[in-house]
Amino acid sequence: MKLFRFLLVAIIAVLLWGTTEISADAKQKVNERPTEGVAAKSDLGESSIDIRFSIQAYRYMEAGYNYLRLAQYGQADIGGETHAKQQVDSIGVDVYLQKWNSDQKRWVDLFKADSASAINSRTVETSKKVSLIKGSLYRTKTYHWIVDGSSSESTTAYSSYLTAK
């Protein structure tokens, strides 16, 4: 009987110890934060690039904006804008949804959510609704570009990141 009790206690201890290890590992992954990027202070992750105050001297590009805004039911709105100082031959913005990969410890592009361009314009903007996985970290990456004559300018911007709810 003592041997049975000892074996029963030993089996229970092993089962509980193994469960604790898995839970601690899972908890660590959930609490792990990106090593790059800025956390949003609310349900709106956004970024604005005011090129006028940038160290880089752009001839045509004036500003760029992007955002990631949590919506209801696992959805989010993402978008971006590009603004030129004057009318240009073509102007555009490409919007990507990125997700934090804790195993690789880097942001990965999930997909190109939307793209917009305009001819003979000073501004272009786009927005799209996307689905998110609860508990995952997301941000928006935008690629802003301008072509005027034989000249071209471009820059990339990243929104702050959010945890999907």
What is this structure's SSE topology?
Blueprint (H helix, E strand, L loop, with lengths): L1 H30 L12 E7 L10 E10 L4 E27 L4 E26 L5 E12 L2 E8 L3 E2 L2
Question: Can you describe what's shown?
Answer:
Helices cover 18% and strands 56% of the residues. It is elongated, with a radius of gyration of 23 Å. Strands 1, 2, 3, 4, 5, 6 and 7 form a 7-stranded antiparallel beta sheet that branches. The protein starts with a helix and ends with a strand. It has a single domain, classed as Immunoglobulin-like (Sandwich), CATH 2.60.40. By secondary structure, the protein is of the alpha+beta class. A hairpin with a 2-residue loop joins strand 5 (137-148) and strand 6. It contains 1 helix and 7 strands; from the N terminus they run αβββββββ.
Q: Give helix and strand order, one letter per element, not per position.
A: HEEEEEEE
Radius of gyration: 23 Å
Broad structural category: alpha+beta
Secondary structure: number of strands: 7
